[in-house]
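User: My advisor asked me to double-check a structure prediction for Carbohydrate sulfotransferase before group meeting. I don't want to rely on an old file, so could you generate it fresh from this sequence?
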Amino acid sequence: MDASCIVHVFRRIKRRRLFTLNISNVQACIGGIFVTVTLVICFLNFELIRKQFEAQSAADVNSWRLAHLSKACKKWNNGGHSNLQPAFYLHSKNHSLVYCLVFKAATSSWFYNFNSWAGYSEYEIMHIDNLFLARKFYPKENRLTLMQSMEHSFSFLVVRHPFERLMSAFEDRLVSKKNAYYARAAQAIYKRYHPTGRGTISFRDFVQYIIDDVKYNNGTIALDIHWCPINNLCTPCLARYDFIVKLETYKQDVETMIKAANLQGIVKLAQVNQVRKDAVATLAMKYFSQITQQQMDSLYSIYEIDFELFGYSAETYFRIPKALV
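Assistant: Sure, here is a fresh prediction for Carbohydrate sulfotransferase from the sequence you gave:
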């Protein structure tokens, strides 16, 4: 075989190898695309399943909360109430929605929605008393009318850990001095326990004031709306609720509730108030270490029914070292 034949043979082999390599590359690319598409489809399916699972889980959680409330109400003899308290309900007939106001539990956000639906401007909502505005458009219903409204509407309330709500009320109402009425109240409470002193109200003063107020009035019904037990504000054992939102899982709960109530595109998840910078655990240690064990026991007894009705625990607060005197 001469040299020209050998060169010809090698060229043919090289072309075949290149052709084989090109086919392999194409096959590899096709395989890669197939794997990528498969992964994308799997991811999308996973996200869809995850969202469906989360929605179902949230619905199951709400069912548990409602069942727990019903059980606790039987234990507590309907929370000690015989009549529904209608003072703190808003009924939007246009949206078939009934909401009970639990102050210091996202009320500003829900006032924003209800007052927006009523046609008030952003300026009015932000600068005029929200309850005053709301009552002009959503008049208070009597007990019978309210119960009928709840039967034919989607009804809900937002709850919060009783002691977190108490700390929030203390900071926002009595410490911040944003409101002239509560600034004067804070000073009056301080003077009650420090008649010759010059200073500002402490959380311990606030707790003792609540304890004394309950003792003086022989019950919790006269407490200020910002720290009055939810049991008094919304009489949950006598009302019919479709959904219980917890502030601790607020975003997920509200998203589930919006779907259940067919309010998509209507409710705005507005964050009206500023978010507290300090962690709850830090605040709990700061405030609950100021009070004595006796004050702690008395305070818990005042809010015990809220703890029971909505499945909260005060264990971590009891573990905080207390003041000796």
